[in-house]
Amino acid sequence: MASNVYRSAAQVTAFSTIEKTLSFAYRIILSRFLGAEGLGIYQICLSVFSVFLTAASSGVPVTVSRMMAKQSATGTERGKHAAVSAGVAATLIFTVPAAVIIFFGRGLIAFLFPDEKSLNIFVLLLPGLVLTSVYAVMRGAFWGNKQFVAYSLIELAEDAVMVVLGTLLVLFADSPSDGAFRATAAALISYVFSFIVSVGWYLARGGRFVDPRAELKPLLASAMPITAMRTSASLINSVVATFLPALLITACGYDNSQALALYGAVTGMSLPVLFIPNSLIGSIAVVAAPEMSEHYYARRRQALARDVERTIKTAVLIAAALIPALFTLGEDAGELLFGNAFSGRVIRDFSFMLFPMCISMMTTTVLNSMNCEVQTLIYFFTGALFMLASIFILTPRAGIYSYMIGMTGSYAITAAMNARLLKRKCPEARFGRHAAASAAICAGGCLFGRLLRNLTGGLSPAANILLCGGAVTAFTLAAFAAAGMAGMQPLKKLLRRPRKERRGGSVARRRKKAERAARGKRDEKRAEEPAQRRRGQYERCRPAER
What we know:
This protein is an all-alpha fold. Helices cover 84% and strands 0% of the residues. Helix 5 (126-144) runs parallel beside helix 7 (176-204) and helix 16 (432-455) runs antiparallel to helix 17. It is globular and about 70 Å long. The relative contact order is 0.09.
């Protein structure tokens, strides 16, 4: 079972890494052709769109996958189909009326956008609200059926469609707003693509849409807390996208273009780099969460503690391995990737945010798998209030940095509160010492990287990234290996060739088991024979026996 989890996580991580690499390259392309202003408009439209999308479907995929896993163990195939159908019904109940109301009453949300052009760009995304919400349910069906490769391939294909079309379209943009419009059109086409492919795959693999009424109420009861938390996160991002540029104008004296440029540099350039661990942690969470939930409800406390320790330690390792490189090379990355020195300084100054961010994300997933959605929702709101207070209080003094300070503090608060609750829910899991030791190694890697970077100040950003990045990463990983905190066993499990019986199903496993039992009986029989008869084909017989 453990090797299957490792292998599934490796597959999802590999596809997710390729997908995030495409998205990252696309960000670079958009920053080059749209500029910070056009990228800021694009980010504002996507932020508002994500609020409605998150409210419609964010908690449904996880809930659908859990309900399908439960039906697989105790129910029927019709129960699994009913769970998926309930998810589709729940999302359509919200998205179809919302899209119609927004389209005909767009003036009601005009205050969320800096100008009418941005509002029109957002309206273009409304069909994608309905289609993407249904695709989110299909993702939950893939997770529930453990079809991780199919899910990963569709995600990668969707991103590839957006990147290719978006790149071709923005090449001919006449202005930053026109470029944002073209990039948004490419996003809509990618949503249509993923909807068609995912629904087609679900039906082709035996999926059906049936009467959802039996599963609709339990699905909504379980999905609402997760949806509320994620919707609030998207809403807060939308509020920040609306009011932070306005605060920069009124409190710091910037004009509209400068404020949008600063916001675009932070959200469109710096944060995508700082959020690199998200894809890795998300891949692990997708695969590990159902296993932990099964252990929790089956009261297998030792297995649950083992999985909790592994997932949180992995999240800490990811953060501690990346922070020294980003702290050392943040400025070089901003100049090389985006041609924007300010975005590089933000990456450098807030690279330490990765540590509480990774712990917060992973512990939230772990607690949600233990039916603690309400508690994690409360903790999220506590951290969000700190971030909003930081923006409104510190912006006159710290400018755009107030947003990053608030975000770092928000993650630190939720990570601490989640860890405290997790120790009560699963006291057998021990990860505090590992986190402290990882932080110490991370600090040593940052010091080594800064000293090395001071010696290579005359090199180009690309040369510094290659030379210093490799040296700092090697130093950090070597320190983890020397401390016995990063062994090769997980890698061996990932690379190990699966046994043949796994491909043959339960019949092959029974056959192999019977063969091993028969072989054991033959060995016992041979052990009872005289020694000379066991060696008869290699020794000459004695004269008396001849």
